[in-house]
Amino acid sequence: MEKKNDIAVITLCNPEDWNRITEQSVDQLTTVFENIQFDKDIHVALLHGEGPISFGPGSLDIIKAKLAKNVLESREIMQEIGNMIRRLYSLRVPVIGVAEGKCLGGGANLALSTDILIADENAVFVELFVDYGLVPDTGGMYALQRLVGPMMAKAIAMQGDPISALQAKELGMVYQVAPAGTAMDVAMKLAEKIAKKPPLAVNQIKQLSNKMHDYTLDTYLQAETDYMTFCTLGQDFKELTMAQMENRLPNLKGY
Predict the structure, then answer these.
(1) 106 close to 135: Cβ distance less than 8 angstroms
(2) Looking at the predicted structure, is the pLDDT value of residue 203 above 90?
(3) CA distance linking residue 177 with residue 234, whole number of Å
(4) pLDDT 10s digits, 62-71
(5) Which has the closest alpha carbon to 48: 161, 196, 178, 149?
(6) How many whole angstroms from its chain centre is CA 125?
(7) Is there a contact between 136 and 103 (Cβ–Cβ < 8 Å)?
(8) Pairing of strands 2-4, 7-12
(9) What is the three-class DSSP state of 99?
């Protein structure tokens, strides 16, 4: 991870092995997410991968040594992957994913679990699990169903066909498609814009959205009330109000 002012840039840097999801990368990403959680100077994170395959599938070593060995070890590694995804969803700051190349299997689902996803026009997403007799992992069906709805999620997962960046944009899997070679620049500009917004409000928006599946209308409205009350009692709301009245730039505290 590299810090650029108030933005954390997380790079998957194992292009020789397709940036595969390994036990080591799961542990490293989980640790990085934990570090970001407690670093109050970070307001936004970017997640991308080097090489032609931005987000790769699960490691063959995991499949051979764990998943295909016995139930206990299979559940252990899946729980570790699940904990990583939970960290990503509950992280204090928004995470912008950057798909510059191919996103395959579990790696595609890692990318789709970010808060906002920017894709290079040449990026491709492949839910390849069904062709191996498997169900999507790394939070796959959860992310897909949130983004495209139950019917489309099932159709995508059951067919396993490649989905282009433009198709992904039309389906709602991707926020923006960038011209070839510019996705990281586009994502950085977006990160810089969001990083200037009140951190507390950005966090509350993320938490409300990511918990939407758990809400009924009544519980959502109660949560909305609680979050709004919390924000209005914060220093940033007071500072933003005063700054507008005094026609000056606000000095945000992040709470």
Answers:
(1) no
(2) yes
(3) 36
(4) 666 655 566 7
(5) 178
(6) 15
(7) no
(8) antiparallel
(9) strand
